[in-house]
Specification:
Blueprint (H helix, E strand, L loop, with lengths): L4 H10 L1 H4 L8 E2 L4 H6 L5 E5 L5 H10 L4 E5 L19 E7 L7 H14 E12 L19 H10 L4 E7 L4 H9 L1 H7 L6 E7 L3
Parallel strand pairs: 1-6, 2-3, 2-4, 4-5
Antiparallel strand pairs: 5-7, 6-7
């Protein structure tokens, strides 16, 4: 799927008023699943895109201390899933998780995914998308199957192009005391070089209409 360049340029600026700030000013979460777990309640409907071994179901149910209505989609048929392509997905969901997936897709494919997610979500539903942090020196380039890099604001812009209009941004890194010490020691250099020690980012988009 090709994308018109006017859409690309518009997407880059669509979330500027909410997420246009230095990368080091975004809050840190230890695990990309934490904001999703905070949002979910027992009985809510959750779709996991790129479900792999379906471990997200167990994580969320342990976090919310109750069952969730969980469905998964993955193109890999090694494990059993409810859906094996974006076009197959049906139903209505309170939340959709898409973790470490969009960097393996072209921008057009990612936009198709975001539009489908917006269509599937219930009102006030949220889409949770994680991807490598391009401000980290090695995170995106550590995998030869990565295709498209996203800055945090630009990822939100693509989601905005698909219809989402409220966003939250996070940096993902498990903070040990050693990492805290190093981040404090090198914070000036990181700001100067516009780099980050967090290998991942997470953008949450809400369907407000």
């Amino acid at each position: 799927m090709d994308v018109d360049w006017s859409i690309v340029n518009r997407a880059k600026n669509l979330a500027e008023d909410q997420l246009d700030k230095p990368i080091l000013s975004f809050p840190i979460v230890n695990d990309y699943r934490e904001p999703l777990a905070s949002f979910m309640k027992p009985g809510m409907k959750l779709l996991d895109i790129g479900g792999n071994q379906r471990t997200l179901k167990t994580y969320i149910e342990n976090a919310v201390k109750g069952e969730v209505d969980y469905k998964s989609m993955d193109i890999d048929r090694t494990h059993a899933h409810d859906f094996y392509s974006i076009d197959e997905i049906s139903g209505a969901y309170d939340a959709i998780g898409c973790f470490e997936v969009v960097e393996h897709m072209s921008p057009g494919e990612a936009l198709k995914l975001f539009r489908k997610a917006h269509e599937l979500l219930l009102p006030s539903g949220r889409l949770f998308v994680s991807t490598p942090n391009v401000y980290h020196p090695m995170s995106f380039w550590s995998d030869s199957t990565h295709i498209t890099p996203y800055r945090l604001r630009h990822l939100a812009g693509w989601m905005g192009t698909a219809g989402f209009s409220r966003f939250w941004g996070y940096r993902i890194v498990r903070m040990t005391w050693k990492k805290r010490l190093r981040s404090w020691r090198y914070r000036g250099l990181l700001r100067l070089l516009n780099l980050d020690f967090a290998p991942g980012i997470l953008v949450v988009g809400e369907k407000t209409k």
